Amino acid sequence: MITILEAINSRKSVRSFTKKKVSNKLIKDILKIASKAPSGSNTQPWNVNVLTDKMLKKFTTAAKKEFMKNSDNLHLERLNYMKKYREPYVGRRRKVGWDLYQILDIKKGDFKKTKHFHAQNYEFFGAPMGLIFSIEKDLGWMSWLDYGMFIQNICLLARNYGLHTCPQAAWGLIYKKANELLKLNKNYTVHCGLAIGYENKKNKINSLETEREKLENFCKFN
Fold it and tell me: CA torsion sign, 219 to 9 to 165 to 102?
């Protein structure tokens, strides 16, 4: 058992996992507690598909194939972040990107290696369990914010049980295929995904440390 401070400070996006399985009971406990997240008028907009074993293999095989085959023609259903990044966001994005690629020894302009690395998203980076989050399309942006608090709860609770996670916006890029594979109701769409499992401490990719802005750069006391 760890404190909330320890959970927040030790949380990171892990991109290599051991083969040790995560029990269904454990993930049920995590999801039940995570659902205590606040949501406007208690709407609770989250829906989760938990993928393990044969279904995980089937789903990730089809998802990766879709990305590798059609990556040049895939489009997001809705804008994830920005159409064109500006400062300070572009600088932060480039910094973490090049820090990661330096660890992976991916040189600037090596599109083949970059694509193959991105494709690992669709295998949940080898995690023994993958979560796919879906949402009803006509819910407003506040519900999407509520969803973020639910996912953050999962990330922090995972640390309490010795697990690590990697939230993945990449799943939104193949939402059509993911919706089809999961046989979602037509009003639902894939929001994002989450790899969850035990960290592979031997893989240097997990040594990535992301920088955070100083408090005075994002906070004003009025």
Answer: positive
Instruction: For residue 20, give its domain range.
Output: 4-81+111-208
Residue 214 within a domain: no
pTM of the model: 0.96
Residue 86 lies in a domain: no
- Is 215 a domain residue? no
Residue percentage of the chain with pLDDT more than 90:
98
CA distance 216 to 90: 20
The answer to whether the CB of 49 falls within 8 A of the CB of 152 is no
Residue 221 lies in a domain: no
Q: What CATH number should be reported for the domain holding residue 115?
A: 3.40.109.10
Task: State the alpha helices, DSSP H only, in 71-221.
Answer: 89-104, 111-119, 141-160, 175-182, 215-218
What is the C-alpha to C-alpha distance for residues 41 and 12, in angstroms, rounded to an integer? 31
| Residue 144, both tokens | 């999407």
Q: Where are the alpha helices (DSSP H) in 11-119?
A: 24-34, 53-70, 89-104, 111-119
Question: What pLDDT score was predicted for residue 1?
Answer: 80
CA-nearest of 22, 11, 46, 23 to 126 is: 22
- Name which of 10, 6, 3 is nearest 206 in CA terms: 10
